[in-house]
Amino acid sequence: MRAFVDAVSTGAEWTLLCERIASLLGTSGAAVLRWDPLGDVGRPLGAHGSWEGEALERLLALGRCEWAFALTDGPAFARQSEGKIRAARDPMTRASAVSVPLHVGPERVGALVCTYSEPRAIAREDVAGSELIALCVALVCFQQDLTATSDRQAKRIARLMDDIERMAINLRGGAPRGEMGTS
């Protein structure tokens, strides 16, 4: 648990965070997916481990994560069958993956996916643990969004200050600051 808390609080790399989530929950894999509303797709931020014996990162790179966003209000469950992913709402369905939405306020920003090596009935405690960790991961996503917004605003302010400086120079007749002619 301490390793997970340290990873979240220090903003560790996503794959390392997924490794710690899988270890904490005792799953064969974990992934954090970010929802891209413009492209209407989920994009993996990080993944670690396997899903039914296949590398989770490879499956997600192939674009096989849309099922994780099938439900916005609660967890979704899935298993692989004959090369296809079968998703369900019922936790008692034999599943090998659970997807928990990441919410920041009313907005769904992503999903936490926890995978298992074989289909099984997923216990309520496993779902509750995934939901608790999803809250923490959503906060990390929100913090990153705020940091990105702050960085963009700082760059914009710097550009505006440069523009103001150039306009001031032009208004003074092209003389650099402090060198106005005195006659």
Low-confidence stretches: none
Q: Sheet with the most strands? A: 7 strands, antiparallel
> How many distinct beta strands?
7
- The share of residues in helices is 40-55%
The coarse silhouette is: elongated
Mean pLDDT: 82
Kindly estimate the percentage of residues that lie in beta strands according to DSSP: 25-35%
Helices and strands, in N-to-C order? Answer: HHEEEHEEEEH
Q: How would you classify the helix and strand content by structural class? A: alpha+beta
The total count of helices amounts to: 4
- The span between the termini is 74 Å
Summarize, please.
This protein has helices at 2-9, 14-25, 56-61, 124-171, and strands at 29-36, 41-51, 54-55, 76-81, 84-88, 95-104, 107-120.
Please give a structural write-up.
The protein has 183 residues and is α+β, with helices and mostly antiparallel strands. The protein has helices at residues 2-9, 14-25, 56-61, 124-171, and strands at residues 29-36, 41-51, 54-55, 76-81, 84-88, 95-104, 107-120. A hairpin with a 2-residue loop joins β6 (95-104) and β7 (107-120). α1 (2-9) packs antiparallel against α2 (14-25). The N and C termini lie far apart (74 Å). The model has no long low-confidence stretch (mean pLDDT 82).
Task: Provide the fold topology.
Elements: H1 2-9, H2 14-25, E1 29-36, E2 41-51, E3 54-55, H3 56-61, E4 76-81, E5 84-88, E6 95-104, E7 107-120, H4 124-171
Antiparallel strand pairs: 1-2, 1-7, 2-3, 4-5, 4-6, 6-7
Helix pairs in contact: 1-2
